[in-house]
Design brief:
Number of strands: 0
Number of domains: 1
Order of helices and strands: HHHH
Structural class: mainly alpha
Strand content: under 5%
Distance between the termini: 49 Å
Radius of gyration: 23 Å
Amino acid sequence: MKNWENGKLGQDAEHAAEASLEEELALDDALELKLISIRLQKSLIRKLKLIANYHGIGYQPLVRDVLSRFVGNEFLNIAKQLEAQKKVEAAAPAGSITKTRQVR
């Protein structure tokens, strides 16, 4: 186990093989990954690569992690806002008009 964790095993090219297209597609399917295209500023990509390198990962997995964290937190914030709005509407006198926030 220690040799695996410190990199003595598994990081040598002799232990690696290129995945076939079928294997790559099966992995993407199993992980529910979809290839997309996005334009980012070169300076942002450089910074993402530096951060990813610091953490010992590729920049694309880092971008997936950043987006996943943002989406999770944003959904939580939206849910809290909707719950607060529900409380305001429930506390409002009958027949009064309450302002609602549109979620885009």
